[in-house]
Amino acid sequence: MIQFILNNQLIKTDKPASTTLLDFVRYDENLRGTKIGCREGDCGACTVLIGSMKEGKLEYMSATSCLTPLPNVHGKHVVTVEGLNLPDKLNQAQQAMVDCSGTQCGFCTPGFVNSMCGYALTCAEPTLESAISAIDGNICRCTGYKTIERASAKLAEKLQTKDKNNAMSWLVANEFVPDYFLDIETRVKAIQTPLVIPVQTGIPIGGGTDLYVQKHDELHDYDLDYLFDKSELNGISFDGNACVLKSSVTVTDLMENERLLETIPNWYNYLKLLSSTPIRNIATIAGNIANGSPIGDFTIILLAMKAQLTLTNKENDSRKVMLKDFYLGYKTLDKKADEIITEIAFELPTNETQFNFEKVCKRQYLDIASVNSAMTISNSGNTITEAHASMGGVGPIPTYLAKTSEFLANKSITVSVIKEAEQILQTELSPISDARGTEAYKRLLGRQLFFSHFITLFPETIKMDHLL
Questions:
Q1: Domain FAD-binding PCMH-type: where (predicted)?
Q2: CATH number belonging to domain 230-347
């Protein structure tokens, strides 16, 4: 029996575990404010808030309900736009949208309101930039966004006096959320019982952001093994200079990790290019790797970081494989049917090591890359001691640039070396013409992104006009 609190109501359901949260709230609970848009996590019309217990405290995040399996909200608090309504007036986010003319047709509005209220619940230091970032997963086809940005600015301004020590009481008193939120943490703690779902075929699923896009209809006929909230598959740890990720770690977990933010310059900005806030909140790193997409953003990042995977079968036998050896062909993996990725390990950059990630797509945010690339370079003075480069969108698998990386080792950081390395790079690319660009365009992007690594990492030595 799946149990969770939906708005102010305790839900107990034996619906098939493969049911999405979106379908449950609309068709079983008749809460039609949560809209069906793309069903692929792109539009944000189905955005809800999910509150989970973390280290004894209830924390909220926005999520796309169209990609959220129902078991992933077991023991949690799910909030739709109906659950944010005050008894006799608009809440602060709704009022800001009205005051700033932030809505026209209204189809996207519930998703925006949910994201804005989620921001009110989670923000520690409200700013216009972070308020707009909180709605980066919501698309509007009517307003041109400026009115919504003004509504976000108004909300951020009202949050300036938020009481951090007694945040929920302050949010209720100042009409951001209804008063039933005051008791939710106690009620959620009361339903913290493990969920046991019988597994037959044992097809593993984490956040659902890949599988529910690719196999939405088929999943309803499968028995799935839900991994998202298994404690043994969650967590980030450090052993010296090594970072070890459990397989259910999300992109947001990595964006918020203080050690990674301190160690890798621009880490937050790199990961901001990966999808949107509601997707980053539920998308697992192992899912991005196992999907096998030739342009998986985090796969490209980890390839350049010399990542190693731990694969574990149902008998709990484990083996390790380098990520660069994991992809055997298009969507073909060095993974047995009963194995799952349980850990991802990589070395953090040191004082002698630098990392850079580049991505080109039709939109800057919330889009799939045409070509993406990452590079780790260790250097001693003006000499490259070790290099590891990767590129996506230029072949049938995420590409580790072995020949290019090998060539760069023990070379000087000069324009001539970089240009020669780029010629080797082109021999490792095999792009095709498709909706994201022609073969020639992708080869050009590969060249430019490769050059960009050096321009970014060695600005005093390598200038853009040197490489033209």
A1: 173-351
A2: 3.30.465.10
